Amino acid sequence: MKESIREQILAVRQQSPLVHSITNYVVMNNTANALLAVGASPIMAHAHSEMADMVKIVGALVINIGTLDEYWVKSMELAIGQANTLGKPWILDPVGAGATPYRDEILRQLLELKPTIIRGNASEIMALARRNVATTKGVDSTEESTAAVDAARYLQQQFGSVVCVSGAVDIIVGKDTTILLSNGHPLMAKVTGMGCTATALIGAFAAANPADPFCATVSAMALLGIAGEKAAKVSNGPGSMQVNILDQLYQLTDEAVASMVKLEESHV
Ligand SMILES: Nc1ncnc2c1ncn2[C@@H]1O[C@H](COP(=O)(O)OP(=O)(O)O)[C@@H](O)[C@H]1O
Ligand SMILES: Cc1ncsc1CCOP(=O)(O)O
Ligand SMILES: [Mg+2]
């Protein structure tokens, strides 16, 4: 797996894939900068009239419901329809799942379109699977990622998606394999849009490596976690952390990621 992570990082830098995001107002700038820092190319667009043409020219589509509304939901459906027709990977970030009935109903409809990859925090993944949802706190998790493993497995089996639950430990659930990554730093959760950034980077890795969405997800999460770890060492708080992560995403070599990754694999 470590060798595959190295190859995937190099593939993103060599190919510089174009990633289309329909994402929320809060994180547009952060995620565009993170995509550029890893060597990918961002485009954000949501006009109905250009969705089908836009998806034709991109390598992957990121759907993030953070600040959804009725117009944007239609944009999402048009873009996903085209991605599915063309066999391009699309990644769902169920921001705030469980917060309101509207959000949950839209997510139910989006799940039927079978995302290639789903990435959310534990509360969101549990709400998405409608499992053990005790509490929700908007966009932040009230649960540890380990509490959402059953929910992630359920989603994987039901919709065929690779499912990533992020948190102190990132858990990536594929058809036959589950990988746990223990990189990262608590300061990452103090920067808004860190989860959305994870999802955007997964988009870049899935675009460069469409044949292996599981490994693409592991690679993106490993890179971000290690960038967070290194950034935290030179940051004074959330403000400097936000910019230092971008520098680390830009500077980290594939060798450094392979040597620093804390990865545990289970075949279940
Ligand atoms: N306590 C923590 N320790 C280490 N890494 C963390 C921690 N909390 C979040 N992260 C990292 O921050 C990124 C965003 O994850 P998370 O905070 O779960 O997403 P969201 O912003 O959607 O709630 C992931 O790369 C995750 O590994
Ligand atoms: C605060 C907020 N409100 C709507 S979207 C959003 C950003 C959430 O970003 P993340 O899930 O990456 O923390
Ligand atoms: Mg989130």
From TrEMBL:
Gene Ontology BP terms: thiamine biosynthetic process; thiamine diphosphate biosynthetic process
Residues where ATP binds: 119, 166
Keywords: ATP-binding, Kinase, Magnesium, Metal-binding, Nucleotide-binding, Thiamine biosynthesis, Transferase
Pathway(s): Cofactor biosynthesis; thiamine diphosphate biosynthesis; 4-methyl-5-(2-phosphoethyl)-thiazole from 5-(2-hydroxyethyl)-4-methylthiazole: step 1/1
CDD domains: THZ_kinase
Enzyme Commission number(s): 2.7.1.50
A GO term for molecular function: ATP binding
Enzymatic reactions: 5-(2-hydroxyethyl)-4-methylthiazole + ATP = 4-methyl-5-(2-phosphooxyethyl)-thiazole + ADP + H(+)
Family named by the database record: Belongs to the Thz kinase family.
Function recorded in the entry: Catalyzes the phosphorylation of the hydroxyl group of 4-methyl-5-beta-hydroxyethylthiazole (THZ).
Name of the protein in its database record: Hydroxyethylthiazole kinase
Organism (species): Chitinophaga silvisoli
